[in-house]
Write a structure and sequence with these properties.
466 residues, alpha+beta, Creatine Amidinohydrolase, Chain A, domain 1, Creatine Amidinohydrolase, 2 domains, six-stranded mixed beta sheet, four-stranded antiparallel beta sheet, 20 strands, 34% helix, 19% strand
């Protein structure tokens, strides 16, 4: 097998599998076909950066629809994959645009059809042998659908139960593609369109060895960036400087981009869960919460750390921080295959609330929390998407499976007051500590374990040189 040429790495991700990448993607497509046993049509992202909102074109790389990326590795807009379990000649067809060498001069290499050289290139890169002009898709689909006795068709759209009612995400291209297919099927008088979401997620959510290696690489880069940041934190005066330095450290070591926009929240800003303003000055007496991570291939790191900007926790900060840290440890000990994430939520928030009573309020501490019982879920699924799986999170009630990757992120947010040794401490504080766990049969693997988080580790990294 030949490795993918460097020129093609922008449009084809080998997922760390190297020469085995095309076989890995082919096996994934085969398994999906075996589970569904019907025609399946899936669409990639239909347009590139600036395709709809041209004024928003500012550092906006192409990120492929995760289902298409999982099944093909293709990171290019306007592609469609048709899988056919009934065909003896061609069980998989990839539809792409015609080759446009003028656009390639502007934007780089793209897969395309229209001449033998382009077709040979597309086959070589993807491993898919039947590649056709995307303008032929409708006719090919109609022919294949109507000539089968079992003329069923499936595609993927995101749906789930919300308050007992089945709901769909209607704002993304998957739903647009679904509506287009349904319109054609009505005119062809074929059966109702099926959703392959359940089968797809059952295959996609358990990570394989390459995914886990990629996730670990993302953690390593993210953690190294954090350590360098803490060693230099004394040089910064505002959140923007911290964000720029940290993201620069991560992006210098990964061409795959950030997992999401970083949260850099000092002082009371950390009580806003999705704070993204990131432009306030801060004082050394405050704490800072940063929620950050980088991608490697298609896997993500999703890390949160909270630390004192002075380099040392004051007595109240330390007590509150260690309450959250104990809750995170309790969740990690409980996490294993067969346990539900709802059960992890129970462990997490009972540990936090009991810790507040035992370790803080019992010694005279006062607090006013910004929520009742729990501020947010203790975690979410991770994978091809940084927040993966059913977007309505019905998976919270499902027994976790070996290979699932989840976040573990207990938090504490509110106004706190405590008098210690004659000195009164009073602050509005947000604390969150987040690691990423891979579920195993007997427990879990903490991919973030090397990223400093204990009081001793953080203070040592931040120690000022005399």
């Amino acid at each position: 097998m030949k490795t993918i040429k460097k020129v093609h790495t922008g449009i084809f991700r080998d997922g760390g599998a190297g020469v085995f990448a095309k076989r890995r993607y082919r096996e994934r497509r085969k398994k999906l076909l075996e589970k569904e046993n019907q025609l399946i049509a899936l669409a990639g992202v239909p347009y590139g950066p600036g395709g709809k909102t041209t004024w928003a074109y500012a550092y906006c790389p192409t990120y492929q629809e995760p289902a298409m990326m999982y099944l093909t590795g293709i990171n290019q807009n306007n592609v469609i994959l048709l899988l056919d379990p009934y065909s003896k000649e061609s069980s998989e067809i990839l539809f792409v645009d015609r080759k446009n060498r003028t656009m390639e001069f502007w934007e780089g290499v793209r897969l395309g059809v229209g001449d033998e050289q382009s077709l040979k290139e597309a086959r070589s890169v993807t491993g898919i042998q039947d590649i056709r002009d995307i303008r032929e898709f409708k006719d090919v689909l109609k022919e294949r659908l109507l000539k089968r006795k079992k003329n069923r068709l499936a595609t993927l759209w995101l749906e789930g139960l919300r308050k007992g009612k089945l709901c769909s995400i209607k704002t993304d291209h998957n739903y647009d593609f679904k509506k287009k297919l349904e319109g054609w099927m009505r005119s062809w008088k074929t059966p109702v369109l099926q959703n392959t979401m359940k089968s797809h997620f059952e295959l996609r959510l358990p990570l394989d060895k390459y995914d886990i290696a990629n996730a670990r690489k993302a953690q390593d880069i993210t953690g190294n960036g954090f350590e360098v940041l803490l060693k230099n934190i004394g040089h910064f005066k505002n959140e923007c400087q911290v964000q720029g330095f940290l993201e620069g450290q991560m992006l210098m070591n990964s061409p795959f981009g950030l997992s999401y926009p970083s949260i850099v929240a000092s002082g009371s800003n950390a009580t806003t869960l999705h704070y993204t303003k990131n432009d306030d000055d801060f004082s050394k007496h405050e704490m800072m919460l940063i929620d950050f991570g980088v991608r490697w291939m298609t896997m993500h790191a999703d890390i949160t750390r909270t630390f004192p900007l002075s380099g040392r926790f004051n007595p109240m900060q330390k007590i509150l921080y260690e309450i959250v840290l104990k809750a995170q440890s309790a969740v990690e000990k409980k996490a294993r295959a067969g346990v539900t994430m709802d059960e992890l939520n129970g462990v997490c928030w009972s540990t936090v609330n009991q810790g507040l009573e035992r370790d803080f309020k019992s010694i005279g501490g006062e607090c006013e929390l910004q929520y009742d019982e729990r501020p947010h879920g203790v975690g979410h699924l991770m994978g091809e998407q940084e927040h993966d799986g059913d977007p309505f999170r019905n998976y919270l009630q499902q027994p976790m499976q070996p290979g699932w990757m989840i976040s573990n992120e207990p938090g504490l947010y509110g106004e706190f007051k405590l008098r210690v040794k004659g000195k009164t401490y009073s602050e509005k504080i947000g604390i969150r500590i987040e690691d990423n766990l891979v579920i195993t049969q007997k427990g879990c693997l903490n991919l973030s374990s090397q990223i400093p988080k204990t009081v001793k580790q953080l203070e040592k990294l931040m120690a000022r040189k005399k």
